[in-house]
Amino acid sequence: MGIETDDLIQEMVVESLDHLENIEEDLLTIESQGADIDLDLVNKVFRAIHSVKGAAGFCALNNIRELSHEWESILNLVRKKELTPTPGIVDIMLKAADLLKDLLKNVGDSDNRDISLYTSMLKGILDVDSRAKEVGPKVTIKDKHGQVLMEVNQNELLEKKNFGYFIYLVRMDLIRDCQDKQRTPLKLIEYLTSLGEIVNLTLNIDAIGTIDDGEPIRMPLDLLFGSIVEPSLMAAALDVPMDDVVELTVAGTPVGVPEAVPSPAAPAVAAEPAALVAEKSKPEAAPIPEPVQVIQSIPRPAPPQAELTPAPPQPVVQPAPPPPPPPPVRPTPAPAPPQPVAQPAPPPPRPAPVLAPPPIDRSGAVSLPATMESRPQPDGGDTQTGGEKKGYAETSVRVNIFLLDQLMTLAGELVLSRNQLVQTISSLQSQTLQPIAQRINLITSELQERIMQTRMQPIGNVFGKFNRVVRDLARSLNKNVVLYTEGHDVELDKSIIENLSDPLTHLVRNSVDHGVEVPEVRRRMGKDEEGRIYLKAYHEAGQVNIEISDDGAGIDPVRIKAKALEKGVITQAEAQGMGDHEAFSLIFRPGFSTAEKVTEVSGRGVGMDVVKTNLEKLGGTIDIQSVVNKGTTIRIKLPLTLAIIPSLIVRTGSYRFAIPQVNLVELVRIRGEDVAKKIEKIKGLDVFRLRGKLLPVIRLSTVLGDSGMYRDPVTGQLKIDRRDVIADHRSTPGEVKELPEKPTPRDATGRRAALTQALNILVLSAGAFQYGLIIDELEDSEEIVVKPLGRHLKDCDIYAGATIMGDGRVALILDVVGIAQKTKLVQRDRLTKEKTKEEARFVSKEIYTFLLFTNHPGETFAVPLSLIVRIERIKSKDVEFTMQKNTIQYRGTSLTLLFLHHYLKLKEPPEQDELFVIVFNIGGKDIGLVATSLLDVEELSTQIDTASFREKGVMGSAIINGRTTLLVDIYELVDVAEPDWIQKVETKQTDERTTRLLLVEDSAFFREMLRGYFEDAGYDVVVAGDGVDALSVLAGHPVDAVITDLEMPNMDGFELTRRLKTSPEYGHLPVMAITSLAGDEDVKKGMDSGVDEYHIKLDKEQMLQKLSDLIQRYQRVRN
Amino acid sequence: MADVQALAQSDVRELITFYLNGGLFGVDVAQVREVNRLQDITRVPHAPEFVCGVINLRGEIVTVVDLRLILNMPATELSSKTRIVIVTHQDEQIGLLVDEIADVLIINVNDIEPIPPNISAEERQYFSGVCKMESLLTTILNLNGILT
Hints:
By secondary structure, chain A is α+β, with helices and mostly antiparallel strands. In chain A, 37% of the residues lie in helices and 23% in strands.
């Protein structure tokens, strides 16, 4: 019982939701028509609500029934044109629709909900509309002897009738039916309510016999009873004599003949519309002379033409030619002429449109059905698809989705088996089998296609709700917006349709909220006050396109960029190089929203990035085009089905993987000789420069590699994964012997080998983030069927599932986002982005000019331009090697050459004919640094990473133009290469050993570097970060000289010098300024403030010399 | 004949038995869907160690686990006798790699003895009992413990 009820309720819910599916649209249409209502449409809605009510009553879902009942009452008034559907009323009805759907969706809980607010709202409409007038005429119910039994409101009877109930007057006898049957009256009532509803009942006291009568005691109970039990069965169901059950019309008179002779043969009430109307003319109370329309969902045996002609309904029995089925409502004013030819015997007369008695208006003309929607739907299903598809006979059945899924799976299997079969047969070369295989082949394909189609649903199901969305939102924003939709019948897989609703809603709301301007603005712009939003679906290239366009304000790329800059989504440099289209796509970046005010609409924490991600989950893409003041168009491309996705099959090692095409941006192949040049390393992360943008790249083998080894549970040793062997063993049984010899550290050799091999890089997009995945081999592009992985593999985030390839083997589907997360690429990407941002912030502060050059093509270096004496171009064959030194004859002297890779851990550069020599003067002697090529002169901020690459000869590293660049410390390098030279420099300073310096420098990098220089030279150094800091340091540390930077926060070097020089305590101190500023004006300004020496940073040699001179000069003066 | 009679009684269980590392183990026949020969197992990098990979079982992706690894035995060595026992567990088909299929055993529930106390608590979850038939001792596997 329980299960049955559940099933029943489930069925009822599904059906009711079906009824409600397009109700919003219909209500909106009704609203737009105002007083000029389309009766058919209203009837359609009425029927829908009515069916819900009926079903709910049947399932004892009281809240649902009550709500639909109240709503139905309003629709009834609308139908009778007694109530004009104003926007306010439609509003309430829309809310009721929401609630009703909600109740249905949570049907188990529906009766626990408080719906009084809504029912009272609905009732409120009735009251407000002065429906205070009698709810309907009274009907007097008499028994067969003419005795008046009771008076009821006719509406109550109507309601039951509308419910699909038969109305009975039943005479029961409490003695006979209770006492004799040994049941309590309550039991009886309970039994009755299980059969139907009691409208009214009276206990006929008069008829109770007395003991004196000596007759069997009777206690007649007259029931006015509504039930779906058919008249022929009713008496039996109640276990009362046939005579005691009388079926009534809504007028309260017995059905059939006006005589009260109930007979099982009496035609069903439904077949008596004429009688109903006829009787209606003489109800006792009858205060309103209007025709009462009885809505029935029961067929009436009148051909539809009857409606189109003023002639009275014709009898069914009509000689040939029988009335053709009316074309889907294209009413002709005249009776349709008999359809000629090509019309096979028409189906049996169908139910007429549900308007029971043709609504005849004053003029006597017949109103015509106006829209397609008004056509009766035998299944009550959606009318959206319209047209011929929905025949008059039932053409669709309900099928469990689960069953369809299984069918899908089986079809997939069949396809695979077919593939194998066809392959085998073709190898047999059998003449007889070939054609059979061909047929099997075709049929299988067809079958699979058809089964897939069963899951397809029209997108109209989603579009339908947007009228409401747009209307509600526009109203709340005081905008005037109209939505136009197109392509309702474009079909998509059910699972896509289901997940499309949210993203589309967001986009449509955006169009209303951000796109369409308020009417005043539109007027000023010379636009129509009414904004338009178009929602369009169409097929293109095997995909479904959905366009959402508006004629609103458009998106201003400049503003977008500004916003993105402000929010730190992009850098200044990025913004400058960005086209409009790129700028538009910024709105899909996480954390971006252009809404200037956070409205109820836009401020819901759902960004466009979520929309994009959700669409990508569906295998879709999104693109945006916009022209300022003209409007915006957003185009979504979706696959027809999720179950089958186009993918690229790739191979790495022994693995084969599928990568969803939707994630694939492009394929890049780097030639073997270019690999080293194009792939750089930043902080241990490989990066690839793709058209000026840095793309992190990762080897798929690295991603997978971790499991190449496993820890032996017994010995605890790391071993080669045995499973590797297994897999290979199985896939290629012949190779078993060779496998153990497979190089163990696969990665190492693989990588080295790969250095000389061409690289295949898949540029993949994981949301807003892109990266490159290096794979061994590209196979084919294939449509794959996605299958889920078992629960033991759920934690492997790098897979999106698996698929079965044509050869019957399994291939895993890579999850592009999962890989990025697993390998922490995303975080690292953020890191480099932050870094770039920081760099950008420093740009304005201090700039040093560097010469960029390479040694090995993949490695970039920089030296301060200010240290370079000159640059020479030499022939590599001229380089001599004598006394452990590389030298070259140059202007009569021999120039010592330094090769970077001799002193630093670097790759040896390839041989080449010409070399560059960067000449420095260190310790009074020229020395040449060899470069294979000169790249550029770049200005560099002080944002230098001193940690990552610090070694003797390297100051640190910086990212210049996205390339990791090592800053060469030429002094250290010379120190390593020619220890004698540096010795000479240092001896010069031996006499200043105890001299203490104050070094004022805000950049930590330079501070540390300079401190190193000075300490190496034998000075004692105290440091300060800026002028203010310096003054306080000075208070505690007596020093012999001050070396200060000029550009500093808080107090700059000029001010500091001025203070020092004018103070009695420190006036005697020599001050040397070191700076990157070297303009004449700066020098003058420095001198004006009292700087004794002026020097450019990074020229260690000269700086130390000058300092030494300066200190000695001061000491001399003092002595 | 005796078997048939035994079957008719309710306190009888049917086991599919197989060898793992020389020992005899059994799984209730009701949980077994089929026994397959070894086929292409697609390895799944980053999968738990005991997962050998996945196979295509008539269109369904089935995870194959190395029972020996789960039971703390040395990993299965593949041979022509290796079989994949497909069991249904929590609505999912899972393949168990076994060394060799032995027999279908009909046993009386009364013959099932509790797990010997010398089995560690950790390993206890893998077994639901032992059954001594003639000279052979069959350990009955508890799939719930093994596969979750």
